[in-house]
Design brief:
The structure holds two protein chains of two kinds. By secondary structure, chain A is of the alpha/beta class. Chain A has one domain: SGNH hydrolase (Rossmann fold), CATH 3.40.50.1110. Chain A is built from 13 helices and five strands. In chain A, strands 2-1-3-4-5 form a five-stranded parallel sheet. In chain A, strand 4, helix 10 and strand 5 form a beta-alpha-beta unit. The relative contact order of chain A is 0.15. Chain B has two domains: 165 residues, no CATH class; 210 residues, no CATH class. Chain B is 71% helix and 0% strand. Chain B contains 21 helices and no strands. Chain B starts with 5 loop residues before the first helix and ends in a 17-residue tail after the last helix. Chain B is globular and about 70 Å long. By secondary structure, chain B is mostly helical. The chains are: A alpha/beta, B mainly alpha.
Chain lengths: 346, 509
């Protein structure tokens, strides 16, 4: 009897326990469902606000996304992706003046490959570029360490819930927002000068190969596929930078480009042809180019893009504001280059 | 992989919980150990050999000590060898370059002195924490208070349990060892309470500490540009940042452990309600204080030398002198150790001496305090006096933290000198605070966040079981509060573009 009673009690407890567990599971599911809905709702709200804001004081490095979304749909023929090396080496309005090719730099400071993939997705929602130029410095951005994995994870989370990316926009509540900044189609103006110092070992012959991480190779392959699907040609290019590039990196990128059948243009190997003056063409000692340096690179890239037979829109009335923009831009750039040329070597 | 990072919170911890739960109870300790070693490996790679070496060494030494317990001298020798070995490794990895620097400074005046080059030594994560735990365990076995543990897994888990690896709390064997290997299944209560505690920790770290970091960096890097009120702000901001960061991370740690049903010792008990410096140290980094008290203070107090001094001084100079003498003898190693434990910098050593002097003075001034209370009728429970004593302790804390954070002792002394220059609030009123990389909105978040923490701490101080009370309310109330906490972190947390990633401060010690 006692055994049976105990057995029954145990059986009852076990059923009660099971019921308790089931109920806890249901509650947890409801809790997370509500949380998911709240995240979706807040994300939609913040995304909407972000899509109308280009004040970099609040948008920080995401400003360029809104600027890109503000471009007239289906007007961009060349989309440039990359980190800060992209928007200091490629000048869309200069390319426009020289060729009538419409381009846009959707680069961000320290852009990662996964961010570049997201940026491409955003661009493809409203644009149909014929060429996607990708600056290669980000191929060597860390992905293997925990930090790299985490950055990639954060990027995925921010794509799913944009509230993570734009959460800081609450700061703009009740503040004066400046949405009228000039963005020169993504190019960043710099007139400072800082000599690169000794460049004897820059791109010195070296047969070693610095491998690109498998994560970045995979993302590059995804980007290539997305470009193919969208009817765009992916081209890799390395902007001149004595700090960021070396021969082993060139070898690594060239090898990867060959493997994935992507054209690759390393302008570090053409520094002489471009006429780079490493005493004057950088504003931070060789890391990034100033307006004088980027002028030379953009001239070369204009010639290169012309060979791809992209349309010249200069006479197209739909692009009339590009001509106005280019004139204002030219004024500033000319003044800056003159100033740079007058600067004593530092 | 800091405890506040997504990789820990959304990948590592959930993975550990799932694998732990699906594993049969008797094997769960192995799961915890595997994840603990994996965590260590992910943070420090091959330096895990330091941890493994320590674990094997401590395990074998404890058993050896237990076996020779009849032979007191051999037991003593084994214990001394173990403690010396453990501290030797800690000294080697953390202090070699400090000693080289000191030798070079001393020798710089002598002709013919050849400068000793610095050595590149990689420091494994958490060595300062697990070394203290290992020493504590050996001493417990040596004193016969604990039996030598036969289970290698238990010893290994005690020294490496992953939530504790980076910032403690520094557990004593009797605090955690048994719980770690019990292998209880996860319960919804533990998961819920642990998650909420983690969220509360993230709230403190991400809203307040990480936001303050920008201003603290500006104040301490450019300290020569500030004086008076702004220099005082340096100490206040850093003390606030450190409390929010360290107690916040400890909340995450304790919450993580709680999810497995493991109760780690608390490390904070509302330290800013302390009325004296000594009370502050009973409420701040409690486990370091307990370790020092258990394994340094008591052994020194009961040592033959101290006893002899006590007898001698009582006879010759009276009880009072004997007591302050004993206090000085016992406090000196504790506070020198406390300073040195934080790292090889003179300002840390100064920080230890600063509290040594203050705590000793507290003891010296006991008769004065008594006389004052008698004359004025005040007592420590008198509201005005109570508040005054709290404010006085704040000044002590802020000054101490200013030296602690300064870029070296010289910078600390210079900041202290600057405290008394241009003492007026105009620098703050005229927008000095807005020159530190934070805008008005940031300060609003800091103030509101700190107010929330203050209210929570005040309720805890008054023994109100806050979370328990919330849980007992209707589900709608508790859920709303948790959603508010989550969205406060998501919206107002200092992360993403415009903010620097802030490494865990105490993981560096």
């Amino acid at each position: 009897m006692i055994d049976m009673a105990d057995g029954n009690t145990l059986g009852t407890e076990s059923r009660a326990e099971k019921r308790g567990k089931k109920s806890a599971g249901r509650q947890a599911a409801v809790f997370f469902l509500i949380l998911f809905l709240m995240l979706c709702l807040s994300s939609a709200l913040f995304y909407r606000v972000a899509a109308s804001m280009t004040d970099s004081a609040y948008m920080k490095r995401n400003t360029i996304k809104t600027v890109l979304l503000r471009e007239e749909p289906y007007t961009i023929d060349v989309l440039v992706l990359g980190d800060s090396e992209s928007y200091t080496t490629f000048s869309p309005l200069q390319v426009w003046m020289g060729s009538g090719i419409s381009s846009f730099v959707a680069g961000q400071s320290a852009q990662t490959m996964s961010e570049a993939r997201t940026m491409l997705d955003i661009a493809l929602e409203h644009q149909k570029p014929k060429v996607v130029l990708m600056e290669t410095n980000m191929l060597y951005r860390d992905t293997v360490s925990l930090k790299g994995i985490q950055d990639s994870f954060y990027e995925r989370a921010a794509v799913l819930f944009p509230v993570f990316r734009y959460h800081n926009l609450w700061k703009a509540l009740g503040q004066k927002v400046n949405n009228d900044g000039e963005y020169w189609k993504g190019y960043e103006v710099h007139k400072g000068v800082k000599s690169c110092g000794n460049t004897d070992h820059y791109m010195e012959a070296d047969s070693t190969v610095k491998q690109v991480s498998s994560v970045n190779s995979r993302i590059l392959s995804e980007i290539r596929q997305k470009c193919e699907d969208a009817g765009a040609k992916l081209i890799l290019y390395s902007g001149p930078s004595t700090v960021n590039y070396s021969m082993d990196k060139h070898n690594g990128i060239a090898q990867l480009a060959k493997e994935q059948n992507i054209p690759y243009l390393d302008l570090n190997l053409k520094a002489k042809e471009l006429g780079m003056d490493w005493n004057r063409d950088s504003f931070d000692g060789g890391d990034h180019l100033n307006d004088a340096g980027s002028w030379k690179v953009s001239m070369y890239l204009t010639r290169y893009l012309k060979t791809l037979h992209l349309p010249d829109h200069r006479e197209d009335p739909a692009y009339s504001d590009w001509n106005d923009n280019a004139q204002s831009f030219l004024k500033i750039i000319r003044a800056n280059i003159m100033e740079i040329q007058k600067t004593k070597q530092t | 992989m800091g405890y506040n990072e997504l990789s820990y919170l959304l990948l590592f911890l959930p993975a550990a919980l799932i694998v732990y739960q699906v594993t049969p109870a008797r094997y769960r300790k192995f799961v915890l150990l595997a994840f603990s070693w994996l965590y260590f490996f992910l943070c420090s790679r091959l330096l895990i050999f330091y941890l493994l070496g320590t674990t094997v060494g401590v395990y074998l030494l404890a058993i050896a000590m237990y076996r020779v317990q009849e032979a007191a001298s051999r037991k003593k020798l084994l214990c001394a060898a173990g403690v010396a070995g453990l501290f030797g490794v800690l000294l080697y990895v953390k202090y070699t370059n400090f000693f080289i620097r000191v030798l070079n400074q001393l020798g710089a005046g002598n002709s013919g002195w050849q400068e000793i080059p610095a050595v590149k030594i990689l420091v494994p994560i958490g060595i300062s924490y697990y070394t203290l735990e290992a020493v504590g365990y050996l001493l417990e076995v040596y004193w016969g208070r604990q039996k030598a543990e036969r289970s290698f897994v238990r010893v290994a888990l005690f020294l490496s349990f992953f939530p504790q690896t980076m910032e403690g709390p520094i557990a004593r064997w009797q605090d955690t060892a048994m719980q770690l290997t019990e292998g209880h299944g996860l319960t919804s209560e533990n998961l819920r309470d642990g998650s909420v505690r983690i969220l509360w920790g993230l709230f403190k770290k991400m809203l307040i500490a990480d936001r303050l970091n920008t201003a603290v960096n500006a104040l301490f890097t450019n300290y020569t540009q500030y004086q008076g009120a702004m220099t005082a702000v340096s100490g206040i901001f850093y003390a606030l940042q450190l409390y929010m960061e360290f107690s916040g991370v400890v909340d995450i740690i304790l919450g993580s452990a709680q999810m497995f049903g493991i109760r780690l010792p608390e490390n904070f008990r509302q330290p800013f309600f302390s009325q004296t410096a000594s009370e502050f140290w009973r409420r701040w980094h409690i486990t370091l204080g307990v370790w020092c008290k258990t394994y340094l203070f008591y052994p020194v107090t009961t040592s033959r030398l101290t006893m002899r001094w006590n007898r001698f001084a009582r006879k010759k100079c009276g009880k009072y002198v004997a007591r302050i003498g004993v206090t000085a003898i016992a406090l000196t190693p504790v506070w020198l150790f406390n300073g040195l434990w934080h790292g090889p910098q003179w300002n840390y050593i100064f920080y230890g001496i600063y509290y040594l002097v203050l705590l000793w003075l507290e003891e010296v001034l006991v008769p004065v305090k008594k006389a004052f209370y008698e004359k004025t009728g005040f007592s420590s429970s008198h509201t005005f006096w109570h508040l005054f004593r709290i404010l006085r302790t704040w000044i002590i804390i802020f000054t101490g933290e200013m030296f602690f954070r300064a870029a070296g002792l010289r910078a600390g002394l210079e900041m202290f000198r600057r405290l008394f220059q241009g003492v007026h609030l105009s620098a703050i009123r005229e927008g000095g605070l807005l020159q530190l990389g934070l805008d008005r909105m940031d300060y609003r978040v800091i103030v509101l966040g700190t107010a929330a923490v203050f209210v929570y701490d005040l309720m805890k101080e008054r023994k109100v079981p806050v979370w328990e009370a919330i849980v007992q309310k209707r589900k709608a109330v508790s859920w709303t509060l948790v959603y508010c906490l989550i969205f406060a972190i998501v919206l107002f947390g200092a992360y993403g573009p415009g903010y620097q990633k802030v490494d865990l401060i105490y993981a560096g010690f």
